[in-house]
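Let's practice the habit of predicting before peeking. Look at the sequence and jot down your guess about where helices and strands might fall. Then scroll down.
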Amino acid sequence: MRGLIIAIDGPSGAGKGTVARAVAQRLGYRHLDTGAMYRAVAWKALQDGLDLADEAAVAVVAERAALEIGPGRVQIDGTDVTAAIRTPQIDRAAAAAARLPRVRAALVKRQRQAGEQGSIVMEGRDIGTVVFPDADVKIYLDASSEERARRRAADPSHGVGRHAALADVESELKARDYSDSTRATSPLAEAKDAVHLDTTGLSIEQTVGAVMEIVGEKLEGGK
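Done guessing? Here is the structure:
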């Protein structure tokens, strides 16, 4: 029997990455961070001196680049960009790239190919609405903007560090939220049949436990 396709969507700082990795590990599933794909493409475009407003040029990168998104590692065209794509600059660049319809089309195609066999936990902003609208489990992780800013400021993997001013981080997150939710193609939105999970005040373990309960119910129902 094919394993489940689990879609975890939500805004920046809601905990998607940490939770999705933990859930995938517990289930023995693959994990795909689709946001890292947009970040890597944006990084490559900047390295190649491309204008991020040049949709045709950036789309070529999205279509042709060799992308490897694995546990704790992101590579594009043989270059390890795991740390390089977690910076405020790339946050903004990825948001710009994600607004380009041809770039989204190219990466959505790759995401569907990666997940079509199931047994995968895929995180992003349009997994349950666009990439896999028929996903077996859809979860929308959210948290207050203050909580998300606190988490992002304390997350060394994003190159921010605890010295960052929370107000500045919150402002960046709100800008990203606006960009994601207002783009014409595949905007950030909660699927109508998704389970909304507000993680404000919840520990990672509590959030993972809540997600595992939802997945467990689906697995039991499929027997």
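How did you do? Residues 197 and 210 are 8 Å apart (CA to CA).
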